[in-house]
């Protein structure tokens, strides 16, 4: 189980993030989740949207540099310790978590998005612990 995440490389300069998000909006791409990581010179805008292939094509046509990555979406409950429990399951399965961020789906509820070193091992470990994972269709 995985979800497609688009990473968009953006110069770390005034107005560039606004420019990218305006371009996305003007092309009717609805951002459902996002995360921003930055360095001194550039940033990476990571997004989850309903039609990732179409979104990536539109972004590339607009001159943006993009990559697509398969990430894991794990259901999370709204109570203390939920994230810790997921991370403990992944740690016990020797799965390395590179980064994570939150995702809220009107259709499917609350999820955490995980970039891990092994999606299959992570999904299996979470399933074994009774933690639901989702694919693109589940979320939209």
Short description:
The protein is of the alpha+beta class. 33% of the residues lie in helices and 39% in strands. It is globular and about 45 Å long.
Break the fold down into its secondary structure elements and pairings.
Layout lengths: L2 E9 L4 H11 L4 E8 L3 E8 L2 H10 L3 E11 L6 H11 L4 E9 L3 E8 L2 H10 L4 E2 L1 H4 L1
Antiparallel strand pairs: 1-3, 1-4, 2-3, 4-6, 4-7, 5-6
How would you characterize the overall build of this protein?
The mean pLDDT is 93. It contains five helices and seven strands, in the order βαββαβαββαβα. The protein has two domains: 67 residues, 2-Layer Sandwich (VC0802-like); 69 residues, 2-Layer Sandwich (Alpha-Beta Plaits), CATH 3.30.70.260. Strands 1, 2, 3, 4, 5, 6 and 7 form a seven-stranded antiparallel sheet that branches. Helices cover 33% and strands 39% of the residues.
